[in-house]
Design goal:
8-stranded mixed β-sheet, alpha/beta, about 350 residues, Rossmann fold, single chain
Length: about 350
């Protein structure tokens, strides 16, 4: 074999050998990168748990002057589909926490109305963001309950991945309502209302449309109403929440019926209790067109209900949950709606009185 051929073969085998080494190195690096990504993701859940524990302390501090604050652990229905088909415990009921707020002025020989208040957010929790709203309710002597339904943050990865958007999360909220009726003799089962904003507004709609016999009225603020409309108008990253393997695992194109099942518009025909809906034309999260679709669907079904479409109200999506005078004046209308059907012992006489209850001045 001449020297030129030897040289060529040597170079060839050197390149092959080097390529194999680099390929192996790339494979190792890829595994390490994926491992680090998983570690960071797991740590995020741990940070959420810490943040939740800190905020829980704030709940006690911010309401200790007017309310008995508790947090209890309940069970609800199992996951809507097993994570592992071979899991022999897949039928176990899920555990979840719920907040309980009871006015310190209660007389256990009397009966008091109950407000069910589910939090907003596709993955979120009942934080002290709602502290002023809860103070407004407590001042009127409502008892308040708020479920940290499946998919909530602050309880680790398992709870997060138990998400069932528009599905059995509603079972958790209903169970929190039932817990209050079953365990507190002073809670009046004939005076129960549900209120919520955004995803909490969606849950309020689902409760009044699917379990209307358990409620006297509902308020739905800027409610998620129709997943087909919502997914078509939002970025692809929003779709990823639903197509994740631990959730639906299919797109709306692959399984449109599953998404319809999770949409309040699908149940509009069931409305048989008083309902108030608020929306805002400059809402940058739940677009006004989506809520208008809910309103129009209810109208087509011949249902009687109340609604207001606010024009360019300050605050966009949170226009009636923030602390401005405009927002609290708008929120006063929600309290007067609830008053008509739940008869709280100490209803507000003015928006100014409501602000004093929430803010002290």
């Amino acid at each position: 074999m001449n020297s030129s051929i030897k040289f060529t073969l040597t170079v060839f085998f050197t390149v092959i050998s080097t390529s194999a080494v680099f390929a192996q190195t790339d494979s190792v690096l890829l595994r390490e990168i994926n491992s680090l990504k998983q570690t960071v993701n797991d740590y995020q859940h741990r940070f959420d748990v810490l943040e939740k524990q800190i905020d829980d302390l704030m709940w006690f501090r911010r309401l200790e002057d007017i309310a008995h604050v508790d947090k209890v652990r309940l069970t609800s229905t199992p996951r809507w589909k097993p994570k592992d088909p071979d899991d022999r415990f897949a039928g176990n009921k899920l555990q979840f926490y719920t907040y309980v707020f009871i006015p310190k002025t209660v007389d256990t020989n009397r009966k008091y109305p109950l407000i069910v208040l589910p939090h907003s957010g596709i993955h979120a929790n009942f934080s002290t963001y709602y502290a002023h709203i809860v103070r407004e309710l407590i001042a009127q002597e409502y008892v308040v309950v708020s479920a940290e339904y499946r998919g909530s943050t602050g309880y680790g990865k398992t709870t997060y991945e138990n998400i069932d958007y528009g599905g059995r999360e509603n079972d958790d909220v209903l169970e929190s309502r039932n817990y209050m009726i079953d365990n507190y003799s002073f809670v009046d089962s004939t005076r129960v209302g549900i209120i919520g904003w955004s995803h909490g507004g969606m849950i309020a709609l689902m409760q009044i449309l699917q379990h209307g016999d358990n409620y006297q009225c509902a308020f739905a603020g800027v409610p998620v109403s129709d997943l087909e409309n919502r997914l078509a108008s939002h970025e692809e990253s929003y779709t990823d929440y639903f197509t994740a393997p631990h959730h639906i695992g299919e797109s709306i194109r692959e399984n449109p019926g599953e998404y319809a099942r999770r949409s309040p518009t699908h149940y509009a025909r069931n409305l048989n209790k008083p309902l108030l809906i608020y929306t805002n034309t400059n809402d940058n999260d739940v677009y006004v067109e989506e809520v208008k679709l809910m309103i129009e669907t209810l109208k087509k079904e011949g249902k009687q209900f109340e609604y207001t479409i606010f024009e360019e109200a300050s605050g966009g999506h949170g226009f009636d949950r923030i602390d401005s005078k405009e927002a609290t004046d708008i929120r006063y209308g929600v309290h007067k709606f609830l008053e008509r059907y739940l008869n709280p012992p100490k209803p507000f006489k003015s928006a100014a009185e409501m602000r004093v209850a929430a803010y002290g001045f």
